[in-house]
User: Fold 3'-phosphate/5'-hydroxy nucleic acid ligase from Enterocloster hominis.
Amino acid sequence: MNQENCILISNQKNWVEQAAKDQLCGVGRLPGVIRAVGLPDLHPGKTPVGMAVLSQGRFYPHLIGNDIGCGMSLFKTEVKQKKFKMDKWVTRLNSIRGLEDIPCDIPYEEACPIRDFGTIGAGNHFAEFQCLDQVYDGDRAEKLGLMDGKIFLLIHSGSRGYGQEILSRFYSPDGLKEGTSKADAYLAEHDNALLWAGRNRLAAAVKLLDYLNVDSRTERLTDSCHNYVEQTREGWLHRKGSVSAGHHALVIPGSRGSLTYVCVPGRDTHISLDSISHGAGRKWARSICKSRIDRKYDRNSIRSTRYKSQVVCHDTNLLFAEAPEAYKNVEQVMESLLEYGLVDVVATLRPLITFKG
Assistant:
């Protein structure tokens, strides 16, 4: 990076698209922006994804995007791995197109701003049943609750259409000046979106387990969002596709065909604005995926992975758009994070069933 207030955390093995670097530099030139950091999963979007941005005097809702509060929750279920029924669960899940098909009670007094509460959404959102693959730090894995032989459920979702509604009302290319009534109004709704995004992930988990006729009690082991803004001592810290290093633990998934890394933040994350990658990051635009790998798969093979896990998704275009080849190598992303001392790996989780819809 040749711009003084921009930094890219990566290494030579980890490919980052030039368009993403250019977008990051553009963000760094916005009024009030003090520093912009690209993480190893940086890739282009409407704004760059996989970044943390510090500004003073004003903040920018469009840098956070339209899915305020999007994040990942890792739940430990009451289902023992030895009692997991792959074929039975896949058959059951194939009988619905999405979680919208399952009724949902809203156990909160406040009015719910999410139209399809307890759903995942399209794009890269997913629900994935996982099991423990490899342990790197036994003590920490034990404390995190990873060693009980249970099935895990990782939910990646956000505030659904609520975040888009907020952004459409508050978008301004010049950002929002701190202390103004408009900025305060945005922050109030932003915080409400964070609250309901977390509730939405929990509701989606309970829905899935209920529908599978298993014990729906869960223990939320980690919960982190990666699209939001917070006020710090130094200014306004935007995260778009990045996770706060303030969490006791976090998950970094790759794609449906890779492992998920359970990590703890490193001791000194100042270089990355106390932010950590939220995943592997896209390698290909969705529009070109099918043409590149159409001949590699048939209608059945596209629904399985090298880990012998199964993918439940009724949208063929989405299956190709979210294929493992469309994403960067998560191992290379992890190498970069480890090289910079941003994380320590506790364990890896292996996919069993990935549900899209």
